[in-house]
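Entry type: protein chain
Record version: 2
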Amino acid sequence: MRARAGTTTPFYFGETITSEFVNYDGNYPYGNAAKGKYRKEATDVGSFPPNAFGLYDMHGNVSEWCQDVWHDNYNGAPTDGTAWETGGDSNRRLFRGGSWSNSSGNCRSARRYYFYVHIFYNGGGFRIVSPVSRRGF
């Protein structure tokens, strides 16, 4: 997964998270971690260390809308990394990564949940990815 940057642990920096590495509701720690800070809002990008691919905030801060429509399970999911835009429930969209208002468990990249497309959620956002140009803009 891109979020974990090739690692096999639940988070790109190891087995657990703390509020020193991730912006989430520190009142709800992951596993045996101690309680941490609850900032009650999103933080600036770059406030925490990036993963090995140089991507920031892949766990916590703002949950990310995914292009995929919601499916209850992975049966029939694409295996080539493309978005799953057919079937499922197009009124619900996949979210990943957790946010500043979530407990630590929602910050795992493997954790998936949904929101309805017509409901505003202030803990969500999206990531724009663009290939790097050698010529600049």
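Comment: The chain has one domain: 1-60+96-113+120-137.
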